[in-house]
Amino acid sequence: MKWACDLIDDNLKKVSREYPHIQVTKNISFVLEDPEVDLIAIATQPETHFRLGNLVLDAGKHLWIEKPFTTSLGEAKKLLEKAKQRKKYLHVDLPFIFYGPVVKIKELLEKRVIGNRRARI
C-alpha cells in the first residue's frame, strides 16, 4: 500500500500515525497519476462510487470498490463495461462501511444503547 486519499484531515492523521510509510493526500490525482499504483480501493459514500470508479478505470488502474457498488443498475453496467474494455479487474467488496444500517448500529453501540445488558431501546 502506497497512498491513502481522504478529504477528512482526522482520517489522514490517523493513517499517518498508524502507517508512517504511506503517503497521504486529499488530492486523488496524485494517486491516479502514480505509475507504481496498479489497484485503487474505493471506500466512500455510495453516491461517489460511479464518479470515482470512472476516474480509476480511466487512469488504467484496477478497481476494488465497496458495496453498494453503485447507486443504479445503469451506472454499474457502465463501470463493468469500462473495466472489460480496459482489461482491468473490478472487485466489489462487502464491508458496508457507509451502509446506513451499519452506520446506525455503530452509532447505537457507541452510545451504549445496544451491546450490553442494561441497554434499553
Fold and architecture overview:
With 121 residues, this protein is α/β, with parallel strands linked by helices. It has one domain: NAD(P)-binding Rossmann-like Domain (Rossmann fold, 3-Layer(aba) Sandwich). Helix content is 41%, strand content 16%. It is built from five helices and five strands, in the order E-H-E-H-E-H-E-H-E-H. It has helices spanning 9-18, 28-32, 49-58, 73-86, 100-110, and strands at residues 3-5, 23-25, 39-42, 62-66, 90-93. The strands form two sheets. The chain has a three-stranded parallel β-sheet with strand order 3-4-5, with helices on one face. The chain has a two-stranded parallel ribbon with strand order 1-2. Strand 1 (3-5), helix 1 (9-18) and strand 2 (23-25) form a beta-alpha-beta unit. Helix 3 runs parallel beside helix 4 (73-86). The N and C termini lie far apart (41 Å).
List keywords for this structure.
flat, two-stranded parallel ribbon, 41% helix, 121 residues, Rossmann fold, single chain, three-stranded parallel β-sheet, alpha/beta
Task: Give a concise summary.
It is built from 5 helices and 5 strands; from the N terminus they run βαβαβαβαβα.
Return the CATH topology: Rossmann fold
Q: How is the largest sheet built, in terms of strand order? A: 3-4-5
N-to-C span: 41 Å
The tally of domains stands at 1
CATH class: Alpha Beta
Topology (SSEs and partners):
Blueprint: E1 3-5, H1 9-18, E2 23-25, H2 28-32, E3 39-42, H3 49-58, E4 62-66, H4 73-86, E5 90-93, H5 100-110
Parallel strand pairs: 1-2, 3-4, 4-5
Helix pairs in contact: 3-4
